[in-house]
Amino acid sequence: MAQYIKPRVPRGMRDILPEQMIRRQYVIEVIRNVFEEFGFEPLQTPAMELSEVLTGKYGPDAEKMIYQAGHTGGKEDISLRYDLSVPLCRVVAMYPQLPKPFKRYQIDPVWRAERPQKGRYRQFFQCDADTVGSESMLADAENVNLIYQVLSRLGFKGFQIHLNDRKVITGIGLFSGVPSKQLGGLYRSIDKLDKIGLDGVTAELRENEIPEDVIAKLLTLLQIEGDSDSVLSELEDQLGEYEIAHEGISELRDLISFMDTLGIPETSYQINVSMVRGLEYYTGPIYETVQDASIGSITGGGRYDELIGSFSKQGFPATGTSFGIERIIDLMNASDMYPSTVGKTVTQVLMTVFDDTLMSESLKLATRLRQGGIRTEVYHRPGKLSTQMKYADTKGIPYAVILGSDELAAGNAAIRDMSSREQEDVPLDRIVDKIQQLISC
RNA sequence: GUGGAUGUAGCUCAGGGGUAGAGCGCCUGACUGUGGAUCAGGAGGCCGUGGGUUCAAUCCCCAUCAUCCACCCCA
Description:
This protein is α/β, with parallel strands linked by helices. It is built from 16 helices and 15 strands. The chain has two domains: 18-334, BirA Bifunctional Protein, domain 2, CATH 3.30.930.10; 349-440, 3-Layer(aba) Sandwich (Rossmann fold).
């Protein structure tokens, strides 16, 4: 008895079988179309980067989750990429001649060595669109527009794009008077507002020995709600004396003004002072989208004006957003949000093979179907139509073409509509036209 | 890294100290030129892995691994 290796994949990684792959390709296609519609162009970078390119960019917590990719005898210290933004910055610094603004999109896997759970994988695809070389809030407004367009076209309703600004957050830090060492913990507690509520945040702040008067001041900030104009003027009242916060507030004002002009409905976004985002490299507006609290955010992004400067004397302002398609697909699967054109199979016709003597006739007809642009599978074992029908049915192939001796004698073949079970004899030279017509409607 | 739950047929799961069951799925036939129904057969499991207790373990105990969930953090 042979010793078998138990077939399995690394934890947090998975195979995507054809039926799921078809859905995934549909989602990616929608995203790609929107990206290109806005003038973003494709880019690909290696799955691995030199470790030095990745370190020191994400913050200490995130950095622990970078996969080391060395091999025995390897001389280079290399790692699997953690996201697509840092490689982009490396590219921009490496090819300074790229015309600015440089707008690129990238749809590729990234790796994070964390504990898998719902909506969290160790290998997952990010779909990023970024603009390098524009300090205008228009670039950020376009990012938000991408989010709005993609999610709307995929059929999402009721999603909320949360907006904030790193400069406002810094202002909150100054405002609270908390020593810089404790700021991380402060932001983390604030970030949990949506999850644990005001009382929960208060309790956490007390545990972290934040002074009561600071807590009281923070709470008034965190309770600011309403339309973006009133939130912004309230923030200005509270934080305006801090220059950095003032800057952040006016960035958000510009951003929202562009968003309005671009036609993004007010109901789809909100300013959320408590939304922090963990990655260290953000410097300005930040945004993330929540659809279903149980699965976390489905998009995330923001401005990172300093990151390219860590690779080159010549820095560039940059901003971008990222779609997490694993989570988007998980949500779409749960609510079956796919149009009927997204089927179980890419095959459009099963060419049956009646018996050995008719194999060559079937193959010739299949070739004509393919030349007519019809995706055609030929059944490989002649005989027993019932088996072939069952196969077409199980796979969800919409049409079967039957070429038996009777049909051939009459110069016909039968086209069977698998869902209606209706069947029609059609002259052989009209088969391609007929099926093209059936498929297009 | 921390805590909790679960690992039995391809899938969903039941069971219980004496080496195993259901439903669905799969294969074959009734249906010798036609798939979603019915009926009849059939294939398929060292009960996650390693140790311990026992005359005996899939069941009890320990360890380990994996999966899921939560925390941390994130898409």
